[in-house]
Design brief:
Distance between the termini: 35 Å
Bound molecules: adenosine monophosphate
Structural class: alpha+beta
Oligomer: single chain
Radius of gyration: 14 Å
Largest sheet: 5 strands, antiparallel
Order of helices and strands: HEEEHHEE
């Protein structure tokens, strides 16, 4: 799949759209979801042009992948949700319900998500 430079997260990364930033380093940006599905709902995106989880995994080394998920855990800690817990969600592709074609991990927290 060809990366779409006009997807909404690409625009956020270029600063063409604003977001409520939670964390940023050279590789990763994290920001609050515009339509939160929990009291805390943050999206963590790599800065590279990866359409999906599958592409992110295919095109990065185990070290790079591990570093990304370490940062996801650090952000959860920074948000203060490590003690009570949180849910990570990655939607992959059309059947997975992925709407934005730039890989992202959802961090959902702030209430019990047990069903
Ligand atoms: P997904 O269905 O996994 O692709 O999730 C995409 C998420 O991006 C949804 O939860 C949207 O609410 C969120 N979203 C879309 N546009 C923006 C935006 N401009 N700022 C923050 N979150 C957004």
């Amino acid at each position: 799949m060809q990366y779409d430079n006009n997807n909404v997260f690409a625009k956020l990364l270029r600063g063409e759209l604003s977001c409520k930033k939670v964390y940023e380093d050279d590789e990763v940006l994290a920001f609050y979801d515009i339509h939160p599905k929990a009291p805390i709902h943050v999206l963590v995106i790599p800065k590279g042009p990866f359409c999906s989880y599958h592409e992110f995994i295919s095109r990065n080394s185990p070290e790079q992948i591990g570093q990304y998920f370490k940062v996801v855990a650090q952000i959860a800690e920074q948000l203060g949700c490590s003690d009570h817990g949180y849910r990570l969600v990655i939607n992959q592709g059309e059947d997975g319900g992925q709407e934005v074609p730039h890989f992202h991990t959802h961090i959902l927290a702030g209430k019990s998500l047990a069903s």
